[in-house]
């Protein structure tokens, strides 16, 4: 979501004649977009912010903007007090304060035809076409902003605000613009993306929206994330199975394998319901890959409770597990009412155990692709190799002299590891 917000702002800025630089000392404008989902992310953001402060002394015209969840939709007066040298503060998914600031301080910024451009930028939201900054082959498109679920540990609802589904026509127009500009794959985003449209009378729901989007000529692939087990309807699952452009890859976090922990997390399902969902996905969507998220060391997680997570992962053999150590976040239910009572070293030990387990599982699953021929959409080059993805989201590298960017080509897999596959054009 932050990547999508940053890309949107970057396109808006290039519309206003800003150019991107990779050298921070050269910049006239620095926007720090921040994540605070865990303390480590917040610390990183604050460290980065302090590291750019000296640049102000060197370049008095420098504008520094702080954006994202460190600020939040309610605003954050404490941050404004703590960092008086920051020029402008902006909520997640809201570039308006930054653009308005630039318009107001034209003596400090480069020339542009401001008001009209700023209005156009704010109106077009994520679909804005930009002359200067290019499109990726795979672009993110937020369709649900905010979240109203309130998991006990999660700060996102407070910082990104309540759930709001974006207007379907706007989304489809933006998708069309993207495809016209060379985008081949669109990734629809939402904290609970399956809930798209449920908060809005008359709105299409996710299956219908994806079917309409899949009809855009030139679009090759459609993905969506993140799913929540309670909102993955049969209709959604069948739509993924039926519509060829919707890729067979589901991101559906379980978070923990113990029912008491799941209840304390306020996730709203049991481990056996999750297990049934996995079975259903595998039965109805041939070749589906499933990614999950896990938090280890949630308050009260005993060794026995942790081992239920371990055993479940071991049994389900999912394709990917994003692992995190529990981090108490300000004003969440768990931070206020549950003691963070799993020691840091123990959280680390559990994290490492799951990491090793999952590495083995993924390596084993990947081995099955050896010798197979798979359609790979190439996104770009990393070092001297082309980088692409299979329909079920496996990363593939191919050495080739030709320009493969944006092409979907058949690749024969001749090496597999836990993180990547290597192959050659078939
Ligand atoms: N909306 C998605 C996930 C968004 S946050 C969902 O409902 O699953 C991405 C991941 O960060 C979460 O899935 C969770 O595993 C992790 N996370 C969120 N809050 C956390 C916290 N306080 N401590 C550790 N990990 C956390």
What's the layout of helices and strands?
Layout: H1 2-15, E1 29-34, H2 39-58, E2 63-68, H3 77-82, E3 88-90, H4 96-104, H5 114-124, E4 138-142, E5 144-145, H6 156-160, E6 164-165, H7 168-180, E7 185-189, H8 206-214, E8 221-225, H9 234-242, E9 249-251, H10 259-265, H11 271-284, E10 289-296, H12 303-316, E11 320-325, H13 333-337, H14 344-367, E12 373-382, E13 385-389, E14 395-398, E15 408-416, E16 421-425
Parallel strand pairs: 1-2, 2-3, 4-7, 7-8, 9-10, 10-11, 14-16
Antiparallel strand pairs: 5-6, 12-13, 12-15, 13-14, 15-16
Helix pairs in contact: 4-5, 8-9, 12-14
S-adenosyl-L-homocysteine (SAH) binds at residues 37-38, 153-154, 156, 191-192, 226, 228, 253, 255, 293, 295, 324, 326-327, 329.
Shape estimate: globular
When the domains are counted, the total is 4
Q: Give the percentage of residues in beta strands.
A: 15-25%
Q: How many strand units?
A: 16
Summed up, the helix count is 14
Enumerate the strands of the largest sheet in spatial order, edge to edge or round the barrel.
12-13-14-16-15
- Could you say which small molecules are bound to this protein? S-adenosyl-L-homocysteine
Kindly report the average pLDDT value: 94
Under CATH at level 1, the class of the largest domain stands as Alpha Beta
Low-pLDDT runs: none
> Could you spell the SSE succession in H and E letters?
HEHEHEHHEEHEHEHEHEHHEHEHHEEEEE
Query: By helix and strand content, what is the structural category?
Result: alpha/beta
Kindly state the percentage of residues in helix.
Answer: 25-40%
CATH superfamily of the largest domain: Methylthiotransferase, N-terminal domain
Q: Distance N terminus to C terminus?
A: 35 Å
Largest sheet: 5 strands, mixed, barrel
The fold-level CATH name of the largest domain is Rossmann fold
Mind telling me the C-alpha Rg? Answer: 22 Å
């Amino acid at each position: 979501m932050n990547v999508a917000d940053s890309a949107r702002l970057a396109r808006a800025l290039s519309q206003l004649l800003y150019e991107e630089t990779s050298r921070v000392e050269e910049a006239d404008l620095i926007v720090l977009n921040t994540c605070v989902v865990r303390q480590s992310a917040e610390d990183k953001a604050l460290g980065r912010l302090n590291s750019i402060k000296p640049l102000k002394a060197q370049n008095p015209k420098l504008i520094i903007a702080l954006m994202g969840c460190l600020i939040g939709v309610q605003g954050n007066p404490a941050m404004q007090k703590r960092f008086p040298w920051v020029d402008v503060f902006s909520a997640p998914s809201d570039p308006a304060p930054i653009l308005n600031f630039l318009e107001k301080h034209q003596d400090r910024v480069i020339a542009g035809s401001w008001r009209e451009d700023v209005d156009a930028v704010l109106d077009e939201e994520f679909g804005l076409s930009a002359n200067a900054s290019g499109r990726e082959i795979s672009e993110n498109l937020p369709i649900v902003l905010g979240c109203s679920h309130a998991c006990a540990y999660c700060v996102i609802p407070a910082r990104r605000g309540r759930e709001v589904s974006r207007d379907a026509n706007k989304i489809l127009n933006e998708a069309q613009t993207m495809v016209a500009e060379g985008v081949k794959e669109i990734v629809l985003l939402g904290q609970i993306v399956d809930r798209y449209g449920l908060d809005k009378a008359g709105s299409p729901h996710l299956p219908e929206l994806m079917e309409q989007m899949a009809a855009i000529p030139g679009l090759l692939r459609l993905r969506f994330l993140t799913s929540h087990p309670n909102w993955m309807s049969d209709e959604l699952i069948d739509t993924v199975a039926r519509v060829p452009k919707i890729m067979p890859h589901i991101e559906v976090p379980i978070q923990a394998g113990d029912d008491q922990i799941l209840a304390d997390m306020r996730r709203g399902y049991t481990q056996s319901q999750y297990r049934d969902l996995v079975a259903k996905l595998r039965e109805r969507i041939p070749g589906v890959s499933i990614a999950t998220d896990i938090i280890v060391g949630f308050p009260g997680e005993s060794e026995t409770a942790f081992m239920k997570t371990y055993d479940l992962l071991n049994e389900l053999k999912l394709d990917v597990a994003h692992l995190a150590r529990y981090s108490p976040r300000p004003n969440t239910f768990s931070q206020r009412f549950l003691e963070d009572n799993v020691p840091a070293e123990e959280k680390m030990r559990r994290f490492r155990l799951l990491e090793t387990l999952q590495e083995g599982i993924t390596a084993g699953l990947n081995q099955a692709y050896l010798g197979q021929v798979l359609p790979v959409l190439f996104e770009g080059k990393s070092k001297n190799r082309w980088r692409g993805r299979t329909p079920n989201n496996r990363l593939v590298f191919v050495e080739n002299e030709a320009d493969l960017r944006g092409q979907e080509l058949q690749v024969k897999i001749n090496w597999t590891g836990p993180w990547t596959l290597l192959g050659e054009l078939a």
